[in-house]
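Notes from the 1:1 (GR / supervisor)

We went over the backlog. Supervisor wanted to see one worked example end to end before approving the batch request, so GR pasted a single chain during the call. The sequence is below; no edits were made to it. Supervisor asked that the structure be written out right there so they could see what the output format looks like.
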Amino acid sequence: MKFRKNMFLEVSTQRISGVEFSKRTLLNRVVNIAKGNSYCRDSPDIKDFKIDIKNKNLYVLVEGEAVYIKKVILPVVKRHLIYDMIKSELRYYYKDINNIAFTYKLIKKDKFNMEILVFCIKGNSLEILENSIKNNIILKKVNLIQFCFKYYYSSKINVKSYILVFYYNCNLYFLICCDNEIVANNIIYIKGLYEFKFSNVMNEFLELYNDYAKSCEKIYYSNIKELDIKEFEYIELPHQILDDIDREELLKYIIVKG
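Structure output shown during the call:
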Protein backbone atom coordinates (compact mmCIF):
# COMPACT_ATOMS: atom_id res chain seq x y z
CA MET A 1 0.00 0.00 0.00
CA LYS A 2 1.41 3.36 -1.04
CA PHE A 3 1.02 6.12 1.53
CA ARG A 4 -0.04 9.57 0.38
CA LYS A 5 2.37 12.38 1.12
CA ASN A 6 1.32 15.47 3.03
CA MET A 7 1.95 19.03 1.93
CA PHE A 8 1.40 22.31 3.73
CA LEU A 9 0.87 25.41 1.58
CA GLU A 10 1.05 28.99 2.82
CA VAL A 11 -0.82 31.07 0.25
CA SER A 12 -0.74 34.88 0.24
CA THR A 13 -0.95 37.70 -2.28
CA GLN A 14 2.85 38.10 -2.15
CA ARG A 15 4.14 34.53 -2.08
CA ILE A 16 3.34 30.84 -1.91
CA SER A 17 5.41 28.45 0.16
CA GLY A 18 5.15 24.67 0.12
CA VAL A 19 6.50 22.16 2.63
CA GLU A 20 6.23 18.38 2.53
CA PHE A 21 6.02 16.67 5.91
CA SER A 22 5.38 13.38 7.66
CA LYS A 23 2.49 13.55 10.10
CA ARG A 24 3.80 10.47 11.89
CA THR A 25 6.93 12.31 13.02
CA LEU A 26 5.28 15.70 13.40
CA LEU A 27 4.40 15.18 17.05
CA ASN A 28 8.08 14.70 17.82
CA ARG A 29 9.08 18.14 19.04
CA VAL A 30 12.58 17.92 17.58
CA VAL A 31 11.13 17.72 14.06
CA ASN A 32 11.29 21.09 12.31
CA ILE A 33 8.51 21.16 9.74
CA ALA A 34 9.46 24.61 8.51
CA LYS A 35 13.10 23.79 7.67
CA GLY A 36 14.01 20.15 8.01
CA ASN A 37 11.72 18.40 5.55
CA SER A 38 12.36 16.80 2.19
CA TYR A 39 10.60 19.49 0.20
CA CYS A 40 10.43 23.24 0.64
CA ARG A 41 10.36 26.10 -1.82
CA ASP A 42 8.86 29.53 -2.30
CA SER A 43 7.25 30.75 -5.51
CA PRO A 44 5.32 33.87 -6.53
CA ASP A 45 3.31 31.85 -9.07
CA ILE A 46 0.55 29.54 -7.87
CA LYS A 47 0.77 27.50 -11.10
CA ASP A 48 4.18 26.17 -10.03
CA PHE A 49 2.49 24.01 -7.39
CA LYS A 50 -0.19 22.33 -9.49
CA ILE A 51 2.03 19.32 -10.22
CA ASP A 52 3.62 19.25 -6.77
CA ILE A 53 0.31 18.95 -4.91
CA LYS A 54 -1.04 16.19 -7.11
CA ASN A 55 -1.91 12.95 -5.25
CA LYS A 56 -1.27 14.53 -1.84
CA ASN A 57 -3.05 15.33 1.39
CA LEU A 58 -3.16 19.11 1.38
CA TYR A 59 -3.19 21.56 4.29
CA VAL A 60 -3.64 25.22 3.30
CA LEU A 61 -3.09 28.43 5.25
CA VAL A 62 -4.48 31.56 3.56
CA GLU A 63 -2.65 34.75 4.52
CA GLY A 64 -2.91 38.43 3.59
CA GLU A 65 -6.59 38.32 2.67
CA ALA A 66 -9.17 40.42 4.50
CA VAL A 67 -12.19 38.50 5.69
CA TYR A 68 -15.49 40.07 4.61
CA ILE A 69 -18.07 39.52 7.31
CA LYS A 70 -21.82 39.61 6.74
CA LYS A 71 -24.64 38.93 9.16
CA VAL A 72 -27.64 37.42 7.38
CA ILE A 73 -31.11 36.44 8.58
CA LEU A 74 -32.61 33.35 6.95
CA PRO A 75 -35.80 31.40 7.56
CA VAL A 76 -35.33 28.15 9.44
CA VAL A 77 -34.54 25.39 6.94
CA LYS A 78 -32.81 22.02 6.97
CA ARG A 79 -29.06 22.16 7.31
CA HIS A 80 -28.25 20.96 3.79
CA LEU A 81 -30.14 23.96 2.33
CA ILE A 82 -28.30 26.66 4.26
CA TYR A 83 -25.24 26.80 1.96
CA ASP A 84 -27.28 27.49 -1.18
CA MET A 85 -29.41 30.08 0.62
CA ILE A 86 -26.31 31.95 1.80
CA LYS A 87 -24.83 31.83 -1.69
CA SER A 88 -28.02 33.37 -3.09
CA GLU A 89 -27.92 36.05 -0.39
CA LEU A 90 -24.30 36.92 -1.22
CA ARG A 91 -25.22 37.67 -4.82
CA TYR A 92 -26.69 40.94 -3.57
CA TYR A 93 -23.30 42.00 -2.16
CA TYR A 94 -20.80 40.61 -4.69
CA LYS A 95 -20.95 40.76 -8.48
CA ASP A 96 -18.87 37.66 -9.15
CA ILE A 97 -20.03 35.08 -6.60
CA ASN A 98 -17.95 32.36 -8.32
CA ASN A 99 -14.75 34.01 -7.03
CA ILE A 100 -15.96 34.15 -3.44
CA ALA A 101 -15.17 31.41 -0.93
CA PHE A 102 -17.12 31.47 2.31
CA THR A 103 -17.92 29.67 5.51
CA TYR A 104 -20.58 30.42 8.10
CA LYS A 105 -21.56 30.07 11.74
CA LEU A 106 -25.05 29.92 13.23
CA ILE A 107 -25.33 32.58 15.95
CA LYS A 108 -28.99 32.55 16.98
CA LYS A 109 -32.07 30.57 16.09
CA ASP A 110 -35.76 30.72 17.00
CA LYS A 111 -38.89 29.08 15.59
CA PHE A 112 -38.88 31.20 12.45
CA ASN A 113 -35.42 32.66 11.72
CA MET A 114 -31.70 31.93 11.88
CA GLU A 115 -29.05 34.58 12.46
CA ILE A 116 -25.90 33.56 10.63
CA LEU A 117 -22.44 35.09 10.50
CA VAL A 118 -20.85 34.62 7.07
CA PHE A 119 -17.08 34.90 6.51
CA CYS A 120 -15.97 35.47 2.90
CA ILE A 121 -12.64 35.79 1.09
CA LYS A 122 -11.77 36.36 -2.53
CA GLY A 123 -11.46 33.03 -4.29
CA ASN A 124 -8.31 34.06 -6.18
CA SER A 125 -6.19 32.86 -3.27
CA LEU A 126 -7.74 29.42 -3.57
CA GLU A 127 -7.31 29.06 -7.32
CA ILE A 128 -4.77 26.31 -6.66
CA LEU A 129 -7.53 24.12 -5.25
CA GLU A 130 -9.43 23.98 -8.53
CA ASN A 131 -9.86 20.49 -9.96
CA SER A 132 -8.82 18.92 -6.65
CA ILE A 133 -10.76 15.74 -7.41
CA LYS A 134 -9.25 15.45 -10.89
CA ASN A 135 -5.73 15.73 -9.43
CA ASN A 136 -6.50 13.25 -6.63
CA ILE A 137 -5.98 15.88 -3.92
CA ILE A 138 -7.48 15.37 -0.49
CA LEU A 139 -8.06 18.70 1.25
CA LYS A 140 -7.42 18.08 4.91
CA LYS A 141 -7.74 21.68 6.10
CA VAL A 142 -8.12 25.18 4.67
CA ASN A 143 -7.42 27.78 7.34
CA LEU A 144 -7.54 31.58 7.42
CA ILE A 145 -4.67 32.95 9.46
CA GLN A 146 -6.95 35.35 11.36
CA PHE A 147 -8.87 32.44 12.85
CA CYS A 148 -5.69 30.45 13.55
CA PHE A 149 -4.22 33.23 15.71
CA LYS A 150 -7.56 33.83 17.42
CA TYR A 151 -7.96 30.17 18.37
CA TYR A 152 -4.29 29.69 19.27
CA TYR A 153 -4.45 32.46 21.89
CA SER A 154 -7.99 31.74 23.11
CA SER A 155 -6.77 30.24 26.39
CA LYS A 156 -4.80 33.41 27.15
CA ILE A 157 -7.56 35.88 26.29
CA ASN A 158 -9.78 36.42 29.29
CA VAL A 159 -12.48 38.72 27.88
CA LYS A 160 -15.19 38.15 25.28
CA SER A 161 -14.90 41.46 23.39
CA TYR A 162 -11.39 42.52 22.46
CA ILE A 163 -8.96 43.72 19.80
CA LEU A 164 -6.18 41.42 18.56
CA VAL A 165 -3.22 42.78 16.60
CA PHE A 166 -0.51 40.48 15.24
CA TYR A 167 2.31 40.49 12.69
CA TYR A 168 3.18 37.54 10.45
CA ASN A 169 5.04 37.22 7.13
CA CYS A 170 5.15 40.97 6.44
CA ASN A 171 1.44 41.45 7.14
CA LEU A 172 0.03 43.35 10.14
CA TYR A 173 -3.44 42.09 11.08
CA PHE A 174 -6.09 43.95 13.08
CA LEU A 175 -9.09 42.03 14.47
CA ILE A 176 -12.08 43.08 16.56
CA CYS A 177 -13.91 40.26 18.32
CA CYS A 178 -17.27 40.73 20.02
CA ASP A 179 -18.72 37.87 22.06
CA ASN A 180 -15.70 35.84 20.86
CA GLU A 181 -16.62 36.25 17.17
CA ILE A 182 -14.58 38.18 14.61
CA VAL A 183 -16.73 41.12 13.50
CA ALA A 184 -14.11 43.35 11.82
CA ASN A 185 -10.60 43.01 10.43
CA ASN A 186 -7.98 44.77 8.35
CA ILE A 187 -4.54 43.94 6.93
CA ILE A 188 -1.55 46.11 6.06
CA TYR A 189 1.46 44.81 4.14
CA ILE A 190 4.73 46.14 5.59
CA LYS A 191 8.21 44.64 5.33
CA GLY A 192 9.35 45.92 8.73
CA LEU A 193 7.85 47.43 11.85
CA TYR A 194 10.76 49.65 12.93
CA GLU A 195 9.71 52.89 11.20
CA PHE A 196 6.04 52.10 10.87
CA LYS A 197 3.64 54.73 12.31
CA PHE A 198 1.51 52.21 14.12
CA SER A 199 -0.58 54.56 16.27
CA ASN A 200 -1.99 56.38 13.21
CA VAL A 201 -3.09 53.17 11.53
CA MET A 202 -4.49 51.75 14.76
CA ASN A 203 -6.59 54.83 15.37
CA GLU A 204 -7.89 54.79 11.80
CA PHE A 205 -8.95 51.17 12.19
CA LEU A 206 -10.70 51.84 15.50
CA GLU A 207 -12.48 54.88 14.11
CA LEU A 208 -13.63 52.93 11.06
CA TYR A 209 -15.24 50.31 13.30
CA ASN A 210 -16.23 52.68 16.07
CA ASP A 211 -19.38 50.85 17.20
CA TYR A 212 -17.54 47.57 17.65
CA ALA A 213 -14.46 49.19 19.21
CA LYS A 214 -16.51 50.86 21.96
CA SER A 215 -17.62 47.46 23.25
CA CYS A 216 -14.06 46.08 23.56
CA GLU A 217 -12.48 45.52 26.95
CA LYS A 218 -8.84 44.92 26.08
CA ILE A 219 -6.21 44.99 23.33
CA TYR A 220 -3.91 42.01 22.74
CA TYR A 221 -0.69 42.03 20.70
CA SER A 222 1.37 39.19 19.25
CA ASN A 223 4.63 39.09 17.23
CA ILE A 224 5.08 42.88 17.52
CA LYS A 225 8.30 43.23 19.53
CA GLU A 226 9.57 45.98 17.21
CA LEU A 227 6.49 48.17 17.80
CA ASP A 228 6.38 50.98 20.33
CA ILE A 229 3.05 50.34 22.06
CA LYS A 230 1.56 53.54 23.45
CA GLU A 231 -1.75 54.70 24.81
CA PHE A 232 -3.98 55.72 21.91
CA GLU A 233 -5.84 59.00 21.72
CA TYR A 234 -8.97 57.41 20.33
CA ILE A 235 -9.59 54.67 22.87
CA GLU A 236 -8.13 53.96 26.29
CA LEU A 237 -8.00 50.25 26.96
CA PRO A 238 -5.67 48.02 28.93
CA HIS A 239 -3.37 45.99 26.72
CA GLN A 240 -1.44 42.75 26.98
CA ILE A 241 1.51 41.53 24.92
CA LEU A 242 1.14 37.81 24.26
CA ASP A 243 3.98 35.35 23.76
CA ASP A 244 5.19 35.26 20.17
CA ILE A 245 4.42 32.32 17.91
CA ASP A 246 6.90 31.40 15.19
CA ARG A 247 6.21 29.69 11.87
CA GLU A 248 7.26 26.27 13.13
CA GLU A 249 4.86 26.33 16.05
CA LEU A 250 2.00 27.80 14.01
CA LEU A 251 2.24 25.15 11.28
CA LYS A 252 2.27 22.33 13.81
CA TYR A 253 -0.71 23.84 15.63
CA ILE A 254 -2.75 24.11 12.41
CA ILE A 255 -2.00 20.57 11.28
CA VAL A 256 -2.62 18.93 14.64
CA LYS A 257 -5.33 21.11 16.18
CA GLY A 258 -6.25 23.97 13.89
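Supervisor's comment: The mean pLDDT is 81.
Batch request approved.
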